[in-house]
From TrEMBL:
Official protein name in the record: PhnD/SsuA/transferrin family substrate-binding protein
Keywords noted in UniProt: Signal
Coiled coil: none
Signal in keyword set: yes
Signal peptide: 1-25
Highest taxon, organism lineage: Bacteria
Pfam family, one: Phosphonate-bd
UniProt organism field: Rhodoferax mekongensis
InterPro entries found in the cross-reference section: TAT_signal
The organism's taxonomic lineage, starting at the top: Bacteria, Pseudomonadati, Pseudomonadota, Betaproteobacteria, Burkholderiales
Amino acid sequence: MQHRRQWLSFAAATLALAAAAPSLAQEAPVYRFSPVNQYGLELTARYWNPIIEYITAKSGVKLQLKIGRTSADTTAYVLANEVEFVFSNHLFSPDRDQLGWKVFGRRQTPPIHSQIVVLADSPYQKLEQLANQSVAFPGPEALVAYKFSYAQLLNRNIPVEVVFGGNMDGAFAQLASGRVKAVGANSQLTEGWVKREGKKIRVLWQSDPLYDLALMASKNVPEKDLKAVAKAFADMGKDVQGVKILAASGNLVGLLPNASFVASNGSEYVSYRNFYKTAPPNLR
């Protein structure tokens, strides 16, 4: 009888521990990763999802894609602290520098440029001819494609009607349809669109070279998880499987096959920060 009571007590204790286990064992966190909308939603997801799955597998840190309908919507998630990792250049203004986002990497590609472009058969040959015409941009948050290029128009006193396409593909769609006469663009995305659509363009203006976008982490990400994710991104271009994924994803958007990610401490983005020192007030 005593044996039976002891066994029942042991069984009850075991069941109690088992019931408590889910609350005692913390599930691994899921971090939201938000790249700016450089392409349409579907193409953005097709480019990033295989990369994110690879990083999750290699780092042991679960990442999940979170993008808004437009680039401005995605940046709104970031500013509302709804995401923990980003691929962006929207966080280098003085006020956003104070939010604590840390650069840990960047995409290694040829230099990018801000551009103002027209179709190759357009009658417009110089910027001044765009006065009072419609010009499309991805959105109000696009630093290279909108703020750099629109600042150039403002500094030259060339008034234009600003049209936002939601992302770079949306802006180019406005150009191809004839609804606008020119587009403010990121040269990398111009090249990708030209390859995918078989169109020809003419560049009316181009900025000095800039580094491609930054990989950044929120100040709320534990150092251990940040280091694991940063290492997985930096090592991806050295791993056979990683190279294949990068080449396949890059091919979708017109990137060179060797486009990969490298470590960064953020020092490459001085030119982005300097822009805000002289930019027209409405673009700061």
